[in-house]
Predict the structure.
Amino acid sequence: MAIEEYGTTANGLPPCPYGRCDGDGWILNEDGTASKCDCLEPRLAKARASGINSVLPKRYRGVSFDRPPVTEIDPGAVGAVREWIEALDQNFEAGNGLWLMGDTGTGKTTLAMLVSKEALKRDYTVAIYSMPSLLTRIRATYGAEAGEESYDEFFERLCEVDLLHVDDLGAEKQTEWVLEQLYALVNERYERQKSIVVTTNLSQDELELQIGPRTVSRLIQMCGEYQIPMFGEDARQKPQLRDS
Ligand SMILES: Nc1ncnc2c1ncn2[C@@H]1O[C@H](COP(=O)(O)OP(=O)(O)OP(=O)(O)O)[C@@H](O)[C@H]1O
Ligand SMILES: [Mg+2]
Ligand SMILES: [Zn+2]
């Protein structure tokens, strides 16, 4: 049976078809080492075949509305994200987006991951990249050899996924090339009415300077009222949050 025929585990991954691992392809041994589960290879093959990064980063796999940190984040912002997710199918149909902006450590990436996790759960295709890593990935296609994915193929995948999740928009180094890539991608998805979720530390004005007014203008139209400001202290600096 194909992996996709199973539902999704609490960590956002399709469950192990053999019931041996918790969905990440690794079995933890009692001595603390890990061995490969039989489901690992097919999982990796599937990820390679999809050509896009659609894996929730480990830190955010467990995100859920009913537990911290989401329960600690500004209720206004959380409510808006919940509302957006409640209408997820319609939002995808219309190509509506979501834009989370604010200072560092206020929960933007956490809330964006809730959206991606729900989309993956419902079997939509999702591409998850931080802006700097997306650019690195695009650059890597320039050196593609025969049989490897070309720039055009990768770009087309980015345009076609149901949800493009770009974390840390504006954190990239600004060059003509970067501006062109970003504009081409956002414009293409805008024209195809495809949803996008972005997080950024920049205000709208700062973002216009960083990525250009034409790209920002399209994002504004796509995200509409879901241009969500987030405020507060840097939660990473609260001592109780340190990883134990
Ligand atoms: N309001 C909050 N209360 C408590 N913990 C939070 C809150 N917001 C975020 N966290 C926790 O703080 C850490 C940072 O959250 P997150 O990565 O979502 O921040 P961010 O806004 O994306 O930051 P950055 O702008 O630096 O990318 C995470 O470990 C998250 O679980
Ligand atoms: Mg972030
Ligand atoms: Zn397994």
Notes: Residues 3-49 form one domain. The chain has nine helices and seven strands.
